[in-house]
Amino acid sequence: MTKSGVEVHQEPRSAEEKRNDAQSFPDGGLQAWLVVLGAFFGLFISFGWTNCVGVFQEYYETHQLALLSPSTVSWIPSLSMFTIFIAGPFVGQLFDHFGPRVLMLLGSAIHIFGLMMASISSKYYQFILSQSICSPIGAAMVLYPSFSCITTWFLKKRALAMGIAASGSSMGGVVMPIMVNRLIPVIGFGWTMRTCAFLMLGLLIITNLTVRSRLRPQPKNFGIASFFTTFKDPPFLLLTLAGFFYSMGMFIPITFLVTYGRNVGMSPSLAGYLVSMFNGASGIGRILPGYVADKVGNFNVSLFAACLSTVLVFGVWLPGHSHSTAIVFASLFGLSTGTYTAMSPALVAQISDIREIGLRSGAMYAFMSIAALTGSPIGGALITASGGSYWKLQVFTGVMLAVGSAFYGASKLYLAKGKVWTKV
């Protein structure tokens, strides 16, 4: 090129310079896809394990904690979800400051330790400490770096890469409930939990060896102000509100799928498979929409999936009271909500500076944690208030999903400047 008549030659950048350029996304290559593979297993052992809450809700109600009400027992899975989400802003800032390596190693140890402690628990407070606090803290330290690292390697194929990684939680949600249901009658609860922990330890070794960020850590001053400053951005605020209400509605069916199946007359074994059906369909809902989103827009796909979830609750779950209805709802609801899980990090990345993704993702998940904490106990209280019927829980779930869908629509319209048929 020339400047003032003088030809200027640009020195080719080294591989290291390209790697640390925030605007140079490889969008492929062996190292990038190895990150996706490691993140897949990271999601398997974190969100995948959390997706098993329906199995434990039913098991604890009929075994160790049979004397407690469903609402009281539901605090175990709901607090677990709350913990993994509320850890988001802290893990996000640590990721931006130090990178993924130390976080993931420490998180792996804490997660496995929590599961081992749960295996020897028998009292309510022990399950709270081990399964609802310790284990999710470790899982969060694996979960958020896994997602955040992918965003540094992909741009054009980001939604697809996110979807493939997020399908790991679906795979975990299929495999783990079957393992738990099959192993408990054979080797007991304690050794079942330990067997699951050993499986996750092997997968965590792969995750720690493969997941890495393309960018160097950017040390920043920690402060609560930076957390709240992110909400001054209207698209991010609308997206956070959408995630809050959608999560409030989404986690209730996940928690009570098994008990609902028992309520409509399913055998314990068949009801237990509802969780695996949900997560199996969720895997499809995490990969396929990601591929479509790269072509038609992340917000467009997310809005469609949110509206579909709402329709399924009011059109299938609420009026139906049969085995077939429970199976159809579990599968289709898994398909629609899987899109939400996979697309959320891509939505944040789309409206954020690449070097603030850790903080912003954490901020959004922190608000979602409130919904995750309160949703299931509210659902349990609604079941009790309706004398064991599920209709009040179903109506509440549908309303929350509808409000979340409305905020997804508002965020899409804001970014599209009021244009309905445009890629966003």
TrEMBL record:
It is a multi-pass membrane protein. The chain crosses the membrane at residues 32-56, 76-95, 102-121, 127-147, 191-211, 236-258, 270-289, 301-320, 326-351, 363-383, 395-415. PROSITE patterns: MFS. Its main location: membrane. GO terms for molecular function: transmembrane transporter activity. It is found in: Membrane. SUPFAM superfamilies: MFS general substrate transporter (SSF103473). Residues 1-21 have a biased composition (Basic and acidic residues). The keyword Nucleotide-binding does not apply. One of its GO terms (cellular component) is membrane. InterPro entries: MFS (IPR011701), MFS_dom (IPR020846), MFS_trans_sf (IPR036259), Proton-linked_MCT (IPR050327). Belongs to the major facilitator superfamily. Monocarboxylate porter (TC 2.A.1.13) family. This is Major facilitator superfamily (MFS) profile domain-containing protein. The lineage of its organism: Eukaryota, Fungi, Dikarya, Ascomycota, Pezizomycotina.
